[in-house]
Amino acid sequence: MEFGINPLVLMTFFPLVGVLVLVFLAPQQKNAMRWTALGTSLVTFAISLWVLFLFDPNKADNLLVQIPWFRLAGVPIQILMGVDGLSILMVLLTTFLTPIAILSTWKAVEEQVKGFMIFFLLLEVGMLGVFLALDLVLFYIFWEFTLIPMYFLIGVWGGKNRIYAAVKFFLFTMAGSVLMLLAILYLGLQAGSFSQPELVANRSLFASMQLLLFLAFAIAFAIKVPVFPLHTWLPDAHVEAPTAGSVILAGVLLKMGAYGFLRFNLPLFPQASVQAAPVVAVLAIIGILYGGAVAFAQKDIKKLVAYSSVAHLGFVMLGIFALNPQGLSGGILQMVNHGISTGALFLLVGMIYERRHTREMSEYGGLWKAMPIFGGISLVVVLSSVGLPGLNGFVGEFTILLGAFGSKIFGSPWFAGIATLGVILAAAYLLKMFEKTFLGPITKEENKSLKDLNLREIITMVPLLALIFWLGIYPQPFFNLINPAVERLVQLVQSAALVLH
Amino acid sequence: MLFQEAVMNSTFSLVPLVVFLPVLGILLNWLFGKRLGEKGIGSIASLAAGGSFVVSVLLAMALVQNHEGAHIPLFTWISVGNLDLSWVFRVDTLSVTMMLVVSGVGTLIHIYSIGYMHEDVRHQGDPNRFRRFFIFLNLFIAAMMILVSADNFLMLFVGWEGVGLCSYLLIGFWFEKGQGGLGNAKAAKKAFITNRIGDFGLLIAIFLIFWNFGTLNFAQVFEMVPAVAQTQPGVLMAITLFMLLGVTGKSAQIPLYVWLPDAMAGPTPVSALIHAATMVTAGVYLMVRTQVMYMEVPGAQQVVAWVGAITALFAGLIALGQFDIKKVLAYSTISQLGFMVAAVGLGAEVAAIFHLTTHAFFKALLFLSAGSVILGMEHGLEAGSHGQGIHHTNGSSHDDPQDMRNMGAIRKKMPITFIVYLIGALALAGIAPFAGFFSKDEILVAANQGNMPIFVVLVVAAFLTAFYMGRQVLMVFFGDARTDAAKQAKESSLLVTVPLMILALLSVLGGGLNFPGVHTLEHWLEQTLEIPHAAEFILPIALGSLAVALVAIFLSYLVYGRKPLASAKAADPLAKPLGVLFRWMNQKFMVDELYQAVVLTPYKKLADFFAHPVDQGVIDGLVNGMGSLTVSLAGVLRKLQTGFARTYALSIFVGIIAILVYLLTRI
Hints:
The complex is a heterodimer.
Chain A: H1 7-13, H2 15-23, H3 30-54, E1 62-72, E2 75-83, H4 88-104, H5 113-132, H6 136-157, H7 162-191, H8 196-201, H9 210-224, H10 233-240, H11 243-268, H12 270-296, H13 301-322, H14 325-356, H15 367-370, H16 372-386, H17 392-405, H18 414-420, H19 422-438, H20 445-448, H21 455-473, H22 476-500
Chain B: H1 2-12, H2 17-65, E1 70-80, E2 83-91, H3 93-124, H4 130-149, H5 153-171, H6 183-213, H7 218-231, H8 233-250, H9 259-262, H10 268-277, H11 282-289, H12 291-296, H13 298-320, H14 325-345, H15 349-387, H16 410-413, H17 415-429, H18 435-450, H19 452-477, H20 484-487, H21 494-509, H22 520-525, H23 539-561, H24 575-578, H25 580-586, H26 591-633, H27 635-640, H28 645-665
Antiparallel strand pairs in B: 1-2
Helix pairs in contact in B: 1-2, 2-3, 2-4, 3-4, 3-10, 3-15, 3-21, 4-5, 5-6, 5-10, 6-8, 7-8, 8-11, 8-13, 10-15, 11-14, 13-14, 13-19, 13-25, 14-15, 14-18, 14-19, 15-17, 15-18, 15-21, 17-19, 17-21, 18-19, 18-23, 19-23
């Protein structure tokens, strides 16, 4: 690079500049802190757009940076980072959602603003690192690193049960990661490298162990996604997390799990992936239907949205393990869609929580009348989550289900056929939520005088709404970013499947 | 010659405007509507719909010159692997016929709504919602146009669910009203979810089409149908039947019709436009569009024909036992849609589209006139309660302005409404020379030639149609005024009555579209469709069906006309002689209750069971238990277990670092 610095490195670590500034601000300069954090995250977003500009979807290793770091038991560990079609949208999602989440804290976070913003920016570094790292140890460090700021965001700025939720979040993820760490160390020692591309090329060296290795990675990632039955940390974490934390948790952190499958499980252990696909698909379908049913029974809006994530990510997993272009591309796009729609839902829940300090649906009713702008925006977001054609959610869901329906790996249309029932359940629980909160007469006196959204809140929502429509009507530019990488992955897995048969 | 062709092609490329004009209307009203006032809002929305109509007319004129039509692509939508979808508009005689109906009737209803909603928003107490109504109405036109002009299955599906959304929004337009304050909202939700069940079927059909045909584009799929029918008849059977599930949702057929009667919670122009004239015919359109598929699987055709015929009969019976003026029309709509579906099953697609068109005219007319009656009754109610302080208790059926028992003698108060209503009723009943006579007759002829049992069922349904319409007209317009509201009813304004007159004219002349011997519509549609049997006019059947209708009307006169209801509380004269049967008809054969008991309640219980004992109990307990087991097995953590959460977290982190350091020092 003629600039002398790799844009990926610049982007990943740029939030640290903000952290540095924040450290020197006095505790009472709350607004300066907010603007610093917002400004930093916006610059990071701008850098990510520059990365997008430099990005070539047809290349497997864009903007590769490779710096030797240290050796672990004789095996070199490198700062190895690059971006491809699997990660580019995840990176953009991260840099896009972070400023929005920060903007949502303007009024919501009044205590220890400095700490909050520092953790938030550190979290961004960790998330970007996870999506860009191509060295397994580096990946693992970033992966674990994201836990710490999130742990504190929930544990310090969360609700009543925040400690329980934070610990549960931490322990669940850790439990999975330990196995992954063992698998990573085994891989490194066995193949003499921690570099993902090299390991993919030399995967015959550990092929005999691949089912176990697949499992070790899969458990770590499945907890994060979360895949049924490892999901119970999620509702607790969401209910207790502050709004901005929920937005990032649902929007980005969960995607790290699904991304892990794409980056590591499929290319490193293709045969095992093919063998495990029906099992994963069954769990994904259970997630879709069970998550939908449990969401339907919730009385707390945030819990409902949390369980809807279990269902939506079930679709993502189903698409990924369909192991054909439609399933995979649809899955990746749906990760973005879920980030946008569910992120937006959590923002909306946060806005009403700031006004009424409750999330019980029974406390509301008739809000569309009291807050027409809020009602209209919520309607669009709910419909996007329902998967209404013309909006973003549909494009992902349809492509996934279409792929899964014809997946040779599943070998039967029944998987997708049953999963499609999920679209009915989604309409049932989301419209029930909309009815209980927004429709009907205003029954509670407190709700009559609620103030509609202010300008800052509208500005937080507008970019999300724009993407909801853009991705629904003209998603092709996004698919163009994903498709070449997906094609390569499909070829790799399919050649492995041939070996298998 | 070349020049003419160029002009034609450029006309065809106007087709996206049928969608974009209503969208423009939405944007204008959304951005500026607040400043424009009711007249401005209504004009913009009506002009947008009218613009679509003008474009449709231009397209039709271009099609007269060039029967081939055109495909007008906009841009790529989804392209992944071998899936390649674009936004493409299709101009052919079938799609343009639908466009003409949708935008034509749509425009009239827009104009009518300016007058109707002016009253309604005041009656309901929220004048600010006027603008929202017209935005939704334009949105509906846009979605419906996407549906009928789509050139592939998925774009059709966008319109398909898009109109479902509009239906949801408009049924729940007064979302704080209805039974218990939530009645309308619940009706809206019911419509959306019931339709989603149908959409599930349509989606599965689309998946099957893609993986067996390799494409979702109409032309390519239809071309391959005969080949697929040869090699995989089972697949084609599955596709057509799953598609039928979608049709039963959207076009309100058994078993998914239950949402349509509740949909009457929407303002009356919505009932006319969406729930009678246009949206609900989308299922019929879909089957006509995919005609080649159904033609290859006679088994599926049989199923379609029977679903339609039984729905026609069943809904006709229920209509007979209703007292709400709109509910009667709603069940009548279900019944008439049954006729159209049956026609498709019988291979009489032209007859189906013919009946679809005439039905759009006279059913829109009937609903809008019913709306006019309701407005008149509301007037009377208000005048009455202000005037003499007569008893006016909220919620009693006595002042329900939609209950026909509260009406009577309206013809004297609202003469224009009466005449147009009568025309609509005669057209629906199938009295010559009104529109419905010709279109229904074509369906009956097809049944007579194709399937005798279905013919019999349809004739009985036609008898019921004429009977319940006779009952309705006699109850509403004749006899004595049974309440003060009816006594003081007032004729509606010109903004309301002029669209009624136009629709009445269309209901009189609509039969001419496919007049026996000339068959304009058939020759128009044969450019697009395959016509297995040319329509025939068989005099005995025509006379027979006319006789059946006349007898039914005469019978209804004997029951309801000779001795009108004495008071608003009097029982229906049929209640006694029919006994249990009448109660069942009145209770809609308890189908809603059945679904409630068999589907909804169990699902709720199951969801609660999953949410609490299972999720919070078993699964959480199990995984938590495993978690603590892991923790206790990790010796380092065991010792550091202090009960403080942060120490916990820290200890784990320290543990990881320790492992790394250990490995590093081994170098």
